[in-house]
């Protein structure tokens, strides 16, 4: 075979073996042609149209689902004018009988403060708890002081009524003091 620069050199000469029939078919299919490009364009446009229809259907179904949920909307508008409300007549009250209820009440007061509640806050707690933090592990006193100082809660110590054990089936278990009422 002649080399470059020799007089018998032919740059178009191909001495590679002829391609196999399978390779010839693959080369013909991958060769860009007018029909191949039209088929590819049709496939792309069909895919785009299918994606568009699917997306539009999904949005339509989601919007119908939202509309089908019952939502109460008053026809007359809001009947409460919040600017003219005397919030001193209203209060959120919590009744805590033990440490767990006390912790829950403080978390509720925290949420009320976070959302800007204008009503007063009242916490009724057992008179066995005090607001003097005597040691670092006295969590009840710490929670009471936090409720009072941080969240502006009015603390009301109460005597927690206890149930007497029932001694007979005919006599139901009364409270120790029947005159105790939280609603007076």
What does this structure look like?
The protein has helices spanning 21-30, 34-68, 99-114, 139-149, and strands spanning 91-95, 120-126, 154-158. The chain is built from four helices and three strands. The mean pLDDT is 76. It is mostly helical. Helices cover 39% and strands 9% of the residues. It is elongated. β1 (91-95), α3 (99-114) and β2 (120-126) form a beta-alpha-beta unit. The longest helix has 35 residues, at 34-68. α3 packs parallel to α4.
Task: Kindly summarize this structure in a few lines.
The protein has 184 residues and is mainly α. The protein has four helices and three strands.
- Give the neighbour order of strands across the main sheet: 1-2-3
Task: Tell me the total number of β-strands.
Answer: 3
Mean pLDDT: 76
**Outline type:** elongated
SS summary, helix count: 4
Helix proportion of residues, in percent? 25-40%
Largest sheet: number of strands, sense, barrel closure: 3 strands, parallel
Strand composition percent: 5-15%
The computed structural class is mainly alpha
Radius of gyration: 42 Å
What are the secondary-structure elements, in order, as H or E? HHEHEHE
The separation of the N and C termini measures 117 Å
Low-confidence runs: none
List keywords for this structure.
three-stranded parallel β-sheet, mainly alpha, 184 residues, 4 helices
Topology readout:
Layout: H1 21-30, H2 34-68, E1 91-95, H3 99-114, E2 120-126, H4 139-149, E3 154-158
Parallel strand pairs: 1-2, 2-3
Helix pairs in contact: 3-4
